[in-house]
């Protein structure tokens, strides 16, 4: 499984009835790039929930609604609502634990 980029409009218009995750980043952020590499390793390690990537510069509605304070940010979503927001991508093991099915 890989990280698929999605726009804010696509995310908001989808029917969200499952558990999934949204990785918020900015393109020029080095820590975001490292977090994305760690996410890709976690996703390749076993069955995980779907994970989407979204450039926070183009996501004002979600940024405000979820009160996102920095990037990188991994938001675990259940039925369209955030249930966990993580700013520290400490390890691949942590990421896999949060994302496993």
TrEMBL record:
Q: Which InterPro entries match?
A: Thioredoxin-like_sf
Q: Which CDD domains match?
A: TRX_family
**Superkingdom of this protein's organism:** Bacteria
Q: Which SUPFAM superfamilies does this entry report, sorted A to Z?
A: Thioredoxin-like
Annotated protein name in UniProt: Thioredoxin family protein
Organism listed in the record: Paenibacillus puldeungensis
């Amino acid at each position: 499984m890989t990280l698929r980029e999605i726009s804010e409009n696509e995310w908001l218009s989808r029917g969200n009835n499952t558990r999934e995750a949204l990785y918020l980043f900015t393109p020029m952020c080095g820590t975001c790039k490292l977090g994305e590499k760690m996410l890709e390793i976690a996703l390749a390690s076993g069955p995980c929930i779907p994970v989407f990537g979204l450039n926070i510069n183009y996501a004002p509605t979600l940024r405000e609604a979820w009160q996102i304070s920095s990037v990188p940010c991994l938001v675990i979503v259940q039925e369209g609502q955030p249930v966990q927001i993580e700013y520290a991508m400490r390890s691949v093991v942590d990421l896999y634990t949060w994302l496993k099915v």
